[in-house]
Amino acid sequence: MLPDLETPRLALRPRRPADLDDCLAMDLDPSVARFIWGAPPDPEKHREVLRGRFADAWPKLGGIWVVEERAAPGFLGWCGLFPLEKTGLIEIGYRYLPKAWGRGIATEAAGCVLDQGFRGFAFDPIVAVSHPDNLASHRVLQKIGLVRQADAVHYRQKVSVFHLSRADYLASDQGQGAGPAKAATPSGPPRPP
Q1: Which of 83, 104, 103 is nearest to 93 (CA)?
Q2: Alpha helices of 40-134 — where are they, by DSSP H?
Q3: What is the pLDDT of residues 128-165, one digit of tens each?
Q4: Sheet of 5-6: strands edge to edge?
Q5: What is the gyration radius of the CA atoms in the chain, in angstroms?
Q6: Where are the domains of the chain?
Q7: Domain 5-180 sits in CATH 3.40.710.10
Q8: Rounded to two decimals, what is the model's pTM?
C-alpha cells in the first residue's frame, strides 16, 4: 500500500476510484491535453481507459498520488512514479488543473514523490519525459534535479528525456537533507510488477 505523503503546503494521498471524475475532467481540459495528446481525448473512450487503470491498480510498480493543498483540500492533479512503457525504467510524471499552474505546486509535489522514489522505494534511476515545447514541465524537472539527456520517442511522440540516478540524488543538496517528503504513514517496498 502506498503511503500518504506531505510537504509543508501539500497533502499527497494514493489515487483511488473516487478520483476518476476529477481525473477525467482534468484530462479533457484542452490546455491540459495540449502537450499530452495534442487535443482532448474522446470522453467515453478515456473514461474506459481510466476505469481500466483503476480496476487494475495501475501502476503495479510505483504509484500515483492525488495532490491537494493541506489548507484547502480538493483535487489539484496527480503526481506519480510508474514504468516508462517497456523500458524497465521508472518515470516520474504529473498532471495538474490550470488553477494549480504557476504556484510551485508541481515542483513541490514532484520533489516529494521523487524523494519517496529514491528513499522509500530505492528506484534507480528515475527518468521523466516531456513534450519538447513544454518548457514549464522542463523547469519543474530541472528544479527537482533531473538532467535533460536527449530527445527520443515514447508514447508515440517525440519527447525530451530527463534522468537522475539515486547516487546523484542522495549526494545533492536535496538528497542530503531530510528530503522534501515526509511520509504520513510508513512506506513499504514498491509494489511488485
Answers
A1: 83
A2: 43-55, 105-115
A3: 999 999 999 999 999 999 999 999 999 999 999 999 99
A4: 147-154, 157-164, 126-130, 90-96, 77-83, 63-69, 10-14, 5-6, 182-183
A5: 16
A6: 5-180
A7: no
A8: 0.90
